[in-house]
Amino acid sequence: MADEDDPKASNGGRAGSDHAAAPRGDPPALADDRPARARRGRVGKVFRLAATGVILVLAFLAATVVWSYYVTAPWTRDGRVRVQVASIAPQVSGQIVELRVVDNQTVKRGDVLYVIDPFDFEVNVASAEAEVKNREADLSVKNAQSARRQALTTVSTSVEEKQQYAGTAKIAEAALETAKAQLSQAKTNLGRTQVKSTVNGRVTNLLLRAGDYATTGTSNISVIDTDSFWIDGYFEETKMANIHVGDPAEMALMGYSNHLRGTVESITQGISTANAAASTQGLPNVDPVYTWVRLAQRVPVRIRIAHVPPGVPLVAGMTATVVVGEGGAPPPAWFMDLRRRVTGDPPATREADADRR
Q: pTM of this prediction?
């Protein structure tokens, strides 16, 4: 039996009574906190839904921007520097006795590239000059004979004889003209023994050497025409609606930070298609295999170069990134229609579109 005056016993009894009474009900502070917790839960749920909606909208906008940038915006990394190359061939045949250029040498129009042995052509000129002198003397004699016959009366000579001498003089005159033409051709051929550049540019891939034989009409030396550089941009067909002749363009060559400037000069009107090849009986050969993935065709666009920064060399075949205009695509049609409905603007016309361009 516990002592009534024992403090441990009394404390233990009170503690036990407290533990026994605790499950009977929640404390007042916890009961008051339930509505607040419910409100916080609803706010958090609304916040999560709003954040999800914002993320979806941002993802849609990002997808729209990426689609416009990569699919419809008028720019491409598939550009090439192009140039015209003059394939120079001699107009006369002969052995090359002198080569006056080296590989990659800069030349101007009219500069001598190499010389063909002129001996045979000098002989032809001398022979033609002698023939001209011979024909001149013959014509002088024939004219004198014809003049004497024409001065005689029909008593001393007949009309037929006069006509014969006059005709002989005409034949001698024609022979002189032929001899002069042959002399002119001989002199021209002699001048052609010096093969000259037809353009301003640089000699490229020179494999010629003195002693080689040059054949008429066979190209044996090439000169890059440095006045003819242009850039071809190969744009996907989805971007062609935003490219027009006369649009400004910027080009960046791989490895150089400074940009070239130019304008769209022309757009090709046709590219090769495999289904156009003729088959049996001349009928078109159509491939029966149709792939699910449809790749956009690339259309060449010719860019005329207007400005080349200092220190940027132009080399045919270099890779270029080409941007036409501002490099951006107009908003899609559904977006423009939605904006016009919201703002109440009238529909755009073709004339207005042309003015904006």
A: 0.68
